[in-house]
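Need tokens for this chain, all 159 residues.
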Amino acid sequence: MRILLAIDESESSHRAVKYVGSLLHRTPDVAITIFHVLKPMPRGLLEHGGSESPAVEAQMDQQLHKDQEDWIRKQRESQCHVLQSACQTLKDSGFDIQRVTLKFGHEDDIARNILEEARGHETIVVGRHGMSRIKRLFGGGVTDQILRDAKGFAIWIVE
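Here are the structure tokens for all 159 residues:
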């Protein structure tokens, strides 16, 4: 069984990690992917201004790609503690961290990024943040989007 554990830096995510670790630490056939979505890439790194010259255009494309990779690398380094902390929480619960994979995403649409990463997993686990009545009424929030759009997954929501 493969579980995608989608986390952020919130207390509800921490509770979800603790819950999964305490529930599944003695289940040897479970593999967990801990997944954290980075903040969206700045607009200035999404595209360049373009050029009439194919040679200049190619050079601008190459530089943009390098700048995007540098930004992603820096974000991963700065957010690595989120994944490491979750992994340590699983380890502290007795879960064998040899069965844990750490991964990052980096898209604007967090829920869509989680659902794309969930391919190949049977279960998605998320923590639910507190939300206002208005958001709850109109179905806002990442967890609600996952509930609405996920097909073919078991979904665990930890509050």
